[in-house]
Specification:
- This protein has 192 residues and is α+β, with helices and mostly antiparallel strands.
- Helices cover 54% and strands 21% of the residues.
- The chain contains 7 helices and 8 strands; from the N terminus they run E-H-H-E-E-E-E-E-E-H-H-H-H-E-H.
- The chain has helices at 9-32, 37-57, 111-125, 130-134, 136-139, 143-157, 172-191; strands at residues 4-6, 60-63, 67-71, 75-80, 86-89, 92-97, 100-108, 167-170.
- The strands form 2 sheets. A 5-stranded antiparallel beta sheet has the order 1-2-3-4-8. The chain has a 3-stranded antiparallel beta sheet with strand order 5-6-7, covered by helices on one side.
- Strand 5 (86-89) and strand 6 (92-97) form a beta hairpin.
- The longest helix has 24 residues, at 9-32.
- The chain crosses the membrane at residues 38-57, 168-191.
- This is Low molecular weight protein antigen 6 PH domain-containing protein.
- InterPro entries: CFP-6_PH.
């Protein structure tokens, strides 16, 4: 079964747009650039691209059959459904398991988004229209609240099929991308 992926759609679109921009500029630097300025511009482009990858494209919550996998900026966490003790939403979704609390990088609820959702809920609840009153329960939630509710329902329904144990590890892909960006900066400093 394919995992269900929750992430910031805006960050994901921005990340891919940046990658297209970076690829175009890399081609331009290779085709038309002159040393050492092309090397310095390439290093800056590489550092920004690495940051966009780890902060916009990589973070996600993957709801799998056996548990929930959280990809944050530099760390990965896996929590089987039967080990999920509590799910809460402040500005971010927090999944608690035993003594471990995993704070999810995405999706997050801003104070403005919370205030707008609360205002919509109050307006819908005080309305005389049945359709608006029916949407009052949905109107008071942010995207992060909705994702947390989905995860909580999955945790309850999939407890019997969960596998593995809770673990938090460093992300090899994120560390490799940051190391490559650092290598570009060192090469630009040494060769220019």
């Amino acid at each position: 079964m394919k995992p269900q992926v929750y992430r910031s759609k805006l960050a994901w679109i921005f990340g891919w747009a940046w990658l297209v921009f970076a690829a175009w500029n890399t081609w331009d630097l290779i085709a038309h650039g002159r040393m050492p300025s092309a090397l310095i511009a390439g290093a800056v482009l590489g550092v920004i691209t690495a940051l966009v990858f780890v902060m916009a494209l990589r973070p996600a919550i993957l709801a799998e059959e056996g548990g929930v996998r959280v990809r944050n900026v530099l760390r990965n966490a896996y929590i089987p459904w039967n080990a999920v003790d509590d799910l809460s939403v402040t500005s971010a979704i927090v999944i608690e398991s035993g003594g471990t609390a995993v704070r999810c990088w995405t999706p997050q609820a801003t104070a403005r988004e919370r205030a707008r959702a609360a205002g919509q809920a109050v307006k819908a609840a005080s309305s005389k229209d049945r359709v608006e009153r029916a949407t009052a329960a949905v109107g008071g939630r942010t995207h992060a609240d909705w994702v947390a509710q989905q995860l909580e329902e999955m945790s309850r329904s999939r407890r019997q099929t969960s596998t593995g144990e809770a673990r938090v590890t460093w992300s090899p892909s994120a560390l490799a991308v940051l190391a490559a960006a650092l290598a570009l900066v060192v090469a630009a400093v040494v060769l220019s």
